[in-house]
Each structure stands twice: as structure tokens, then as C-alpha cells.
Amino acid sequence: ISRNPGELEFHQAVREVFDSLPRVLSRHPQYVEASILERICEPERQIIFRVPWTDDEGNVHINRGFRVQYNSALGPYKGGLRFHPSVLLGTVKFLGFEQIFKNALTGLPIGGGKGGSDFDPKGRSDAEIMRFCQSFMTEAYRHLGDRVDVPAGDIGVGGREIGYLFGQYKRITNRYESGVLTGKGISWGGSLVRTEATGYGTVFFTQHMLATRGRSFDGAKVLVSGSGNVAIYAIEKVTELGGTVVGASDSSGSIYDPDGIDLQLLREIKEVRRGRISEYAQERDRAEYIGGAPVWAVAEKTPVDVALPCATQNELDEQDAARLIAAGVQAVAEGANMPTTPEAIRALRDAGVLFGPGKAANAGGVATSALEMQQNATRDSWSFEYTEQRLAEIMENIHTRCAETAEEYGVPGDYVSGANIAGFTQVADAMIAQGVI
Ligand code: NDP
Questions:
Q1: Dist. CA 226 → ligand 1 center (Å)
Q2: Would you say residue 183 has pLDDT above 90?
Q3: How far apart are CA 125 and CA 53, in angstroms?
Q4: In the CATH scheme, what architecture does the domain 197-352 have?
Q5: Atom 11 in ligand 1: which residue has the minimum CA distance?
Q6: Which residues form the Glutamate/phenylalanine/leucine/valine/L-tryptophan dehydrogenase C-terminal domain (predicted)?
Q7: Residue ranges of domains in the chain
Q8: Residues classed as catalytic
Q9: What is the Cα–Cα distance from 49 to 150, expressed in whole angstroms?
Q10: Atom of ligand 1 nearest to the CA of 339
């Protein structure tokens, strides 16, 4: 803590992993002897840079760019870029630290990294977004490469931004290096299912958790927070599996739709118009807008079987957990990174609610990014069905690995410990094999 002052989210992420490790360290003293805990907390490299750009009126703006190359024991650094005004070094470090273990859980050869900027894309024109992305890449390109570091999207970075970033990388390097970024457009090196992967994967993981109690999504009432990339495709898959999503949100407020979210309308508002979720309630008969409240407030109006936080960190607190428990929630799985506070996780688990941590439950996005890299490396492109099948298998394997590891270490049903221990031991073993570097 004294070495990384003020990086509260980073401290929270490290504490959560370390809390799972006492049993591992007593069983495997080699990790202590090789100082793995000290080494794994320290990024291999962190890059902070100036991103100057000009808005449509000719005003110059200066933002800060970050790339934290955290751990390359298992493969090239891999992790998204976040463009949001709240981004600080500590935010990128928390996300990068989580990414190390998540990527290990996918079973694919990818190390952990993360990046982004405190740039706020809201309300900016396409031309402004393009100039920002070009300026960001003008510095970032020298640190990237398909065998070095492969960024992807995250909050505020979707297909449009990846396109501008890729274009600038290609222009500076004079190389058509498809595998340097993932989340590309389908016609120029992207993978089918990548857009859907995180949301779908979270739902697949939850399906396996529910199955351990003989339950399923069929007939379930579900709350999903957010209405961005992860949320939209989580809603789509839940609906496909027979569930009804009765609430969603954005950073301004939430909607309650007792008839189930009309995904076409939601996508039109969020993806095409880039509008606010309040517009949904204006255009849908029985839907209600609850301004300024998290979607978990909807649990006061209706029973809830499953909750999928898919927006941002620390968005589901102890009070929200109490609301969900009172509404009868059976399972909570994190589509977002660290959306549930430690106190809320404790409350949910004490109440016997199945809890899937983000490292495991939202790993489908990065896993499909790694599948995109595989397709780029072999200059191939796979069908939607085949790629979705691979995603489904990966999510099933992650679920099995977390469940078996939890069992092996004497905490059956504890997916948090299972995910942390399985990811940690794999990375730690590789670090020991590769020497003190
Ligand atoms: P998007 O930018 O597409 O969407 C984020 C959504 O969350 C928006 O609807 C945003 O609303 C909403 N939001 C932000 N802050 C809050 C808040 N405090 N309360 C309620 N809603 C809020 O991002 P993604 O969907 O890509 O990412 C969401 C989460 O999933 C992040 O934690 C990310 O790290 C994680 N993740 C994403 C992956 C991916 O493949 N995209 C992979 C793995 C994890 P508004 O429009 O008002 O800002």
C-alpha cells in the first residue's frame, strides 16, 4: 500500500486474490521461496504518455495515455483499452492485475496487460474520436505487436475506436499486422462472436453454476446492469435461453420493464443513436425509468433469480446485495470487472447465493480475442457456429476448473477461491520455470 499510494482499486484487486492464497502457500512453499507474491504485483512495464488532440472547434486538449504490461509468463500481454474520464494509473493496474489470472483461466497462451486514457468519448464527433485514437496510437504503437502486446476494447472502446487505432498502427509501421489488435471489423481480420463473447460467456458460465443446483435460465427473472457491449449480449443470450431480463441501466439511471427488455429498441437507442437509457422508458408502454438509481433497485419491485453486473467496478454494494437477497436471487455473475464490493460478495455468499467472479465469468471476451489472434495467425476465418461452440467449451472448462480447484483446496462451491487459485498457480509455475526475471 505504501508503495502504490492512493491506488485503491488496485489494492482491492490484489487483496481479493491474496485472500485466497494462504492454503496455496502452505501447500507450495516454492512460491514463497521464489518471491512470487512480490513479483506478481509489480508490472513488468508501465507506460504513461501524453495524448494531445484537437477538437472540431480547433481547441487543443491533453489527455493521459496508459499501457500497463503486467505479466508475460504465459504469452504476449493481452487486455483491453478503456477510455473514460475516471481512468487513473491505479484503475489500469487493477484491471491489468485481474487480467493476468483471467487470461490464465482461458487456457490460451496470453499474458496480462491493460491500458486506456482519461479521455471522455461522450458527445464527441466521429472526427474527434478518430483524431484522439490516432494520437494515442502515435505513441502506443512502439510498445505493441502481435508477439509483444495486443490491446482490445473495454469501456468506451468499441469497433469504431479499434478501427481508427488499427488504421494508425498500419500507417506508422507500414505493416498489415492483423494480430496487433482484437475486436476488429469482420471484413478486415475480426472474428465472428467477438462482439457477443463477453456477454454470452458470462451467461454460459452462469448456466453451469445454476446447473449445479438443478436450475436454469428457463423462466428466470434477470437483472443486468449497464447497457453497453457486455450488457447487451448478456441480455440477448439470457432471452434466447428462456429467461426474462426485467432491468438494465446506464450511468444516469435504470429501467424496469416487466415485459422483458425489447433488445431491438435498446440497441437502437444505445448502439445507433448513442442515446440514454431513459429514452427506452419513453418509447415502451409499461417500462419505467428510475433516474439516479442502480438497476438493483428494481429488485424492490419484482422477484429476481439472477443478477449480472455488466457495467463497471464497485457498482453493486452491500445494500444492493441485501435488495437482491430479499428478492430471492440465486446466482450473481460478474460480466464487468470487479463490479461487486467485497462486503457485497460476503453478504451474497453468506446467504448461499452462487457467485461467479469476473475473472472467470467474463473471460469469454478475452478468450475469443485469443481465437481472433489464432485466426489471424493462420489467415483463416471461422463460422459463427464454430466460434460460439469454442467459446461455450472454454466457458465450461473455466467453470469446471474453478469448481474442481475450490474442491481440491477444501472450499467447495467457492468460485472466487477456485478462480484465484487456478489462475495464480498456473502463472506462478510458469514464472518459476522462467527464472528470476
Ligand atoms: P461499454 O462502454 O460498452 O458499456 C459500459 C456500460 O456501463 C454503459 O452502458 C455505461 O453507461 C454503463 N455504466 C458505466 N458506469 C456505470 C455506473 N456507475 N452505473 C451504471 N451503469 C454504468 O463497456 P463494456 O460493456 O465493454 O464493459 C463493461 C464492463 O465489462 C467493464 O467493467 C469492462 O472492464 C468489462 N469487460 C468488458 C469486456 C469486453 O469484451 N467488452 C471483457 C471483459 C470485461 P453510460 O453510457 O452512461 O456510460
A1: 6
A2: yes
A3: 13
A4: 3-Layer(aba) Sandwich (3.40)
A5: 250
A6: 191-435
A7: 8-178, 197-352
A8: 114
A9: 18
A10: 32
